[in-house]
Write a structure and sequence with these properties.
Mean pLDDT: 93
Number of strands: 13
Helix content: 10-25%
CATH topology: Rossmann fold
CATH class: Alpha Beta
Distance between the termini: 56 Å
Bound molecules: S-adenosylmethionine
Structural class: alpha/beta
Strand order of the largest sheet: 5-4-3-6-7-11-10
CATH superfamily: Vaccinia Virus protein VP39
Largest sheet: 7 strands, mixed
Shape: globular
């Protein structure tokens, strides 16, 4: 289906030159690609205008955008669980040299490919699970691990794998439930100290046996204390917390005696 002349595209931070496009045909193609989770603006045509979270993920990005440099020239980016490509597109618009988006869902990958092509942005999209992320060669200046952790049965296993790919910074987001407050805890507690577990701020992950928000893939919902403790435990240092569910981190102690935490754990020597 032709959607008109799409050669004129957005690129970098330059203003888009509105191409002569057939918006009705574009809307039909968007519709054919199935239900979208990302509300992208494709030349004025929204892909998910009725999203239950509003203009998503723009509503989130608005608070996060300032912790990522406006000029990403030369940078490499890995977007894990890229979905319809919102964050991959934003990184490419900032001039990133290479953006690789991965996801396990073909519908989302097809949407992302269509959006990037429509906007004339060169982004690689690949079907790959976060559990296979360590098979991707090299490291990336920016790794985005947004909105995926709580969908995993093995969240810390995944996070420890993701850490291996972080050459520069990790932008991490998870749904948070329970307390959004944090406080300092002792390094150790006596076996009979049961009180700490009654504090709402004590790091805690809620396990969802059946379904939450009508989504049976929501498995583990951390409170803020647990989200931050997991990041630290995977060897990351939190450098920014731009909104309640999102953290920017840098690798600090991801390896011990030259071995990654994951490899030590799997070898039984952590
Ligand atoms: C809630 S959406 C988040 C999308 C996007 N990262 C964001 O923050 O808006 C979760 C995404 O993770 C993907 N996903 C779920 N399990 C995954 C896995 N094991 N590996 C990679 N992606 C996964 C889903 O297909 C979906 O696109």
């Amino acid at each position: 289906m032709s959607i008109g002349n799409l050669q004129e595209t957005t690129s970098g931070n330059k203003a888009a030159v509105p191409p002569q496009i057939d918006r009705e045909a574009l809307a039909r193609r968007i519709d054919e690609l199935g239900e979208w989770f990302h509300n992208l603006d494709l030349y004025g045509v929204p892909t998910a205008p009725n999203h239950f979270l509003g203009d998503f993920p723009n509503v989130k990005w608005r608070h996060i955008a300032s912790v990522i440099p406006p000029d990403l020239s030369g940078a490499t980016v890995l977007d894990i669980g890229c979905n319809g490509g919102f964050y991959s597109l934003e990184m490419k618009r900032r001039g990133a040299e290479r953006v690789l988006g991965i996801d396990v869902d073909d519908r989302y990958l097809n949407q992302a490919r269509f959006a990037a092509k429509t906007l004339g942005l060169e982004i690689e999209f690949e079907k790959r699970s976060v559990y296979e992320v360590d098979r991707i060669p090299g490291q990336f200046d920016y790794v985005l691990f947004m909105g995926v952790l709580y969908h995993l049965r093995y969240p810390l296993f995944a996070l420890d794998k993701v850490v291996k790919k972080v050459g520069g910074k990790l932008l991490f987001q998870t749904m948070i439930r329970g307390s959004e407050q944090v406080r300092a805890w002792e390094k150790n507690y006596h076996f009979w100290n049961k009180d700490i577990f009654t504090h709402p701020e004590f790091p805690c992950m809620y396990f969802i046996e059946n379904s939450y928000a009508n989504d049976p893939t929501n498995w583990w919902l951390p409170n803020r204390g647990a989200a931050e403790a997991m990041l630290r435990s995977s060897g990351l240092e939190i450098t920014a917390h731009p909104e309640p569910e999102t953290w920017l981190c840098v690798p600090r102690e991801v390896a011990r005696q030259g071995q990654y935490i994951l490899d030590m754990e799997l070898a039984g020597i952590l």
